[in-house]
């Protein structure tokens, strides 16, 4: 047994399989494989029933088992039921492939020690070795506890006792004559009237646009953006829209002209609203980002754009371009290309000192510049 304990601590035994009435493991020694099995006699149904009846008489033990624990006092219930849960020396039968002469070889002894360590971690394995899994044991115990609770409410002859519970005493109250004879109390003050609705900025014109149609169109566009992302056509899913971007989106997707004034005021930034709507119409959400955001593109993108412009234009025809971050401006001509994070070039035209989106974006800056000049 001492050699078995030492062998158990070497880690040379493989995984242990626990099943009703059986413990088994495999291992290697000096390069030779072996299998060790310990068998244990299970309990019959009568023994289990007797054990659960004695366990149900101990509420703390029963509650612990039903809560997923295995209380130590279960062994006392087993003694009362004359059931042996813990295996004795004669209860275990060892079988090993090794050539050891001892009845209990080093491998079987090591398996016994490791099994005891497993029981310390999960005591319900003891019930499994005797023939009941944790769920089966809890279900059988729950049935016995329920039957005993039902039997406790019956008489000795098996019928309900004739004694009736005493009627609950009624609380002391106020006589009706006294209650109705009292003078009525003063009513509480009325709450203040609600404030009138704010209608100063509300439009008196009828709205001809069907709100449901706007919602359907918006949902369809949103679904298209999500589908493009799932198929790898866009690098990121569409971001949720705040109030500003949602007002711009609705205005850009063609509502009734009488709705535009309401959207402009609701957006919170009416001065930028028209340009933002134009940017959305030409380039969607990314087009609005190009209007509002200035960023520095990677050097590789800038070099590739320079090469594309040089290849698409004759050297003497290429206009002078001032480059500032992602804004490429044709000096003195009021024309500009803006590079978006989606890799496309957005044409802009200067009007009254402000830059306005002028055309649809292109992946080729030379094509975008040509359309901008021709337009």
UniProtKB/TrEMBL annotation:
Q: Glycosyltransferase: is it a keyword of this entry?
A: no
Q: Name one GO molecular function term.
A: zinc ion binding
UniProt keyword annotations, A-Z: Metal-binding, Zinc, Zinc-finger
Tell me which residues make up the SWIM-type domain: 81-116
> Does this UniProt record's set of keywords contain Disulfide bond?
no
Q: Can you tell which superkingdom this protein's organism belongs to?
A: Bacteria
Output this protein's name. SWIM-type domain-containing protein
């Amino acid at each position: 047994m001492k050699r078995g304990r030492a062998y158990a601590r070497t880690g040379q035994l493989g995984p242990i399989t626990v099943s009703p009435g059986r413990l088994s493991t495999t291992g290697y020694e000096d390069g030779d494989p072996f299998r060790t099995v310990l068998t244990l006699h299970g309990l019959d149904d009568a023994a289990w029933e007797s054990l659960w009846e004695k366990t149900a008489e101990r509420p703390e033990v029963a509650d612990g088992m039903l809560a997923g624990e295995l209380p130590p006092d279960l062994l006392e219930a087993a003694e009362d039921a004359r059931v042996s849960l813990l295996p004795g020396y004669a209860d275990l039968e060892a079988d090993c492939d090794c050539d050891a002469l001892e009845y209990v070889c080093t491998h079987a002894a090591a398996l016994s020690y490791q099994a005891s360590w497993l029981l310390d971690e999960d005591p319900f394995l003891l019930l499994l070795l005797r023939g009941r899994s944790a769920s089966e044991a809890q279900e059988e115990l729950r049935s016995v506890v329920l039957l005993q609770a039902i039997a406790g409410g019956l008489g000795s002859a098996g019928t309900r006792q004739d004694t009736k519970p005493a009627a609950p005493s009624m609380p002391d109250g106020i006589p009706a004559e006294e209650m109705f004879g009292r003078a009525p109390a003063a009513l509480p003050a009325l709450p203040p009237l609600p404030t009138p609705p704010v209608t100063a900025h509300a439009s008196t014109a009828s709205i001809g646009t069907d709100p449901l149609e706007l919602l359907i169109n918006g949902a369809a566009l949103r679904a298209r953006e999500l589908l493009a992302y799932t198929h790898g056509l866009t690098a990121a899913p569409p971001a949720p829209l705040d109030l500003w971007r949602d007002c711009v989106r609705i205005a850009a997707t063609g509502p009734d002209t009488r709705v535009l004034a309401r959207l402009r005021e609701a957006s919170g930034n009416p001065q930028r609203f028209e340009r933002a709507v134009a940017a959305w119409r030409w380039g969607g959400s990314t087009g609005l980002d190009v209007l509002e955001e200035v960023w520095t593109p990677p050097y590789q993108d800038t070099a590739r754009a320079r090469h594309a412009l040089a290849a698409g234009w004759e050297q003497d025809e290429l206009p002078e371009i001032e480059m500032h971050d992602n804004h490429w401006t044709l000096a003195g001509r009021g024309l500009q290309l803006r590079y978006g994070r989606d890799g496309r070039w957005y044409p802009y035209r200067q009007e009254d000192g402000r830059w306005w989106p002028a055309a649809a974006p292109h992946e080729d800056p030379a094509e975008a510049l040509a359309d901008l000049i021709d337009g």
